[in-house]
Design a protein that fits this description.
Order of helices and strands: EHHEEEHEEHHEHEHEHEH
Number of helices: 9
Number of domains: 2
CATH superfamily of the largest domain: von Willebrand factor, type A domain
Structural class: alpha/beta
Strand content: 15-25%
Shape: elongated
CATH topology of the largest domain: Rossmann fold
């Protein structure tokens, strides 16, 4: 048995308080012969002390949240280990480039991404999903998990305001590190959503290339185009060696050099974003094996029930003691 809140066990010495305190009677007698013998009350007084000890012990143990042993079960399904790397720069709160043409008019890129990612996660019950956000730096929101409740909470938490910078290199490297301590299920992918790209240093490029290859991670980049933004598929920039080449084109070319599978998409409205996510859904659906953790039984309720029953017994014994006192009191 383990405890979710083991620090609460430090309150156990409080169990000794009923044994240490002396009970004070509510009446004073000038002559002890007037006090009747009451063995029932004497026994009840002793029982009340030990019942109080047991009640305090049960309450402390309930607060410590005792739990049974966690078990693991191997399961099979179709899906992947997916890390969502989401851009949270300030520009993500702007509308799509084509928001006034089709799709949901006025819906921001971050709002559409949140809505469609939630649908993506709900449609893939066997996936393990992790979430990373980035703007000027990366934030590790939630590790790979199969808990849909935790994933939904992480997606909701990833919607805060961002800064102006787009440190896409930090986001990708943080996403790759999530796979390091996880057994390979047979299908791994990073889904990168951003509305632009910052320049990545040669050192960061080498790190991303090495880590993605070593961890066997496929990469999908969904570019949420800015109004009047350039296209990463624009043939005008193919073969251009100008160092001032747009950051998006430069990053796209770098991703194409990776030794694992890479696929890029451009989305100008919620409809094309949904289409890109659906394509990834079809590509990353392979037979996988994974270990599901079964949480141990929570014993807190049992200790609470025991405390309630003991309190009831304590009150009953105290009531019997009062009745016995009344019957034994002499009348003059």
């Amino acid at each position: 048995m383990s405890f979710a809140e083991p620090w609460m066990l430090g309150l156990l010495p409080l169990c000794l308080v009923p044994l240490w305190l002396n009970r004070q009677e509510g009446r004073v007698y000038s002559w002890l012969a007037l006090v009747p013998l009451d063995r029932v009350s004497d026994i009840a007084s002793l029982l009340l002390r030990y019942l109080s000890v047991a009640i305090i012990a049960c309450m402390v143990l309930a607060l410590a949240a005792p739990q049974g042993r966690v078990t693991q079960i191997e399961r099979t399904g179709k899906g992947a280990q997916v890390v969502l790397v989401i851009d949270r720069s300030a520009s993500m709160d702007d509308p799509f480039a084509g928001a006034g043409v089709e799709g949901r008019v006025g819906e921001t890129k971050s709002g559409a991404a949140k809505r469609l990612i939630t649908q993506f996660v709900d449609a893939r019950k066997d996936d393990m999903v992790g979430i990373v956000t980035f703007s000027n730096s990366a934030m590790h929101v939630f590790p790979l998990t199969q808990s849909r409740e935790a994933i939904h909470a992480a997606i909701a938490a990833a919607g805060g305001s961002g800064l102006l910078q787009t440190n896409i290199g930090a986001g990708v490297t943080t996403g790759v590190t999530m796979f390091e301590k996880m057994p390979d299920s047979g299908s791994r992918a990073i889904v990168l959503l951003s509305d632009g790209a910052g320049r990545i240093s040669p050192k960061a490029k080498q790190k991303i290339s090495d880590w993605i290859t070593r961890q066997h991670v496929n990469l999908y980049w969904i570019v949420l185009r800015q109004p009047d933004g350039i296209s990463i598929f624009n043939p005008k920039y193919i073969g251009v060696s100008d160092p001032e080449e747009p950051a998006e084109i430069e990053l796209h070319k770098f991703f194409q050099t990776l030794k694992t599978k890479y696929q890029a998409y451009e989305a100008e409205d919620p409809k094309t974003l949904q289409s890109a996510i659906q394509d990834i859904n079809l590509r990353e659906r392979k037979p996988i094996r994974y270990m599901e953790k079964i949480p141990g039984k929570d014993y807190s309720s049992l200790f609470i029930l025991a405390a309630v029953l003991l309190i009831g017994l304590l009150l009953l014994i105290k009531l019997l003691g009062i009745n016995a006192w009344k019957q034994a009191t002499p009348r003059f």
